[in-house]
Design goal:
alpha/beta, Rossmann fold, Alpha-Beta Plaits, 2 domains, 5-stranded antiparallel beta sheet, binds adenosine-5'-diphosphate, NAD(P)-bd_dom_sf, Trk system potassium uptake protein TrkA
Length: about 210
């Protein structure tokens, strides 16, 4: 179930439909918005998600996953999330537009709070600063980056270049120009034009990508 089919909720709902197995119920209070996705989701319904009765009529209590994509209307976001928590939906995600909004959603029992603008801003900052092509940050200061190889490792196998000891990062996968990614082994020889996926502490992955 996806509540609020704005830019965030709509992209999410359509992506969920892409595997061809997931059933997606989209709910929005705006009729035009619902019209806009008609035929592209399993069900799309006009309803006010802050009203428990309206949601019960749609049998949403049977959903095992719900996403509240309503953001800019903080009151509607909190009210609908609280209805879902009250119903005991086992997995609830909700989008927050500020730190305090995120805190309240967590306090009322939402399992996963996401801040798309904030998180994307942080991510893009790393891309802008370094030479990496992609960046994912995990908890505890751990990250995974997509980066060109540093000049010093070109022509050497991963064993010879000793990347893990020297730079503190582990090469997880490697991609030759025009080919797909394959898992890296100690024997993998890095060539100019390759793309690496490196994992490690944030500072180490950033420093490593700056050597490229
Ligand atoms: P985005 O920034 O992703 O476009 P918005 O917060 O602007 O997100 O859009 C949220 C969507 O949620 C809108 O389409 C709006 O009609 C819908 N919405 C707002 N309040 C409710 C509500 N009480 N019940 C259902 N949908 C709602």
């Amino acid at each position: 179930m996806v509540i609020g089919l704005g830019r965030f909720g709509k992209s999410l709902a359509l992506e969920l439909m892409r595997d061809g197995h997931t059933e997606v119920l989209g709910i929005d209070s705006n009729e035009d918005v619902v019209q806009g996705v008609s035929g592209r989701l399993t069900h799309a319904v006009v309803a006010d998600a802050t009203k428990e009765d309206a949601l019960r009529q749609l049998s949403v209590q049977e959903s095992d996953r719900a996403v509240v994509g309503v953001g800019s209307d903080v009151e509607a976001s909190i009210l609908s999330a609280s209805v879902l928590v009250e119903m005991g939906i086992p997995n609830i995600w909700a989008k927050a537009i500020s730190h305090s909004h995120a805190r309240i959603l967590t306090q009322i029992g939402v399992h996963h709070v996401i801040r798309p603008e904030h998180d994307m801003g942080v991510r893009v900052a790393h891309l802008v600063r370094g030479r990496m092509m992609d960046y994912i940050e995990f908890d505890d200061g751990f990250a995974m980056v997509k980066t060109p190889p540093p000049h010093e490792v070109v022509g050497l196998s991963l064993r010879e270049s000793n990347i893990r000891q020297k730079h503190g990062v582990t090469i997880v996968a490697i991609k030759q120009r025009g080919k797909g990614f394959t898992y890296a082994t100690a024997e993998t020889v890095v060539e100019a034009g390759d793309t690496l996926i490196a994992s490690g502490l944030i500072e180490d992955t950033e420093r490593f990508s700056e050597l490229a």
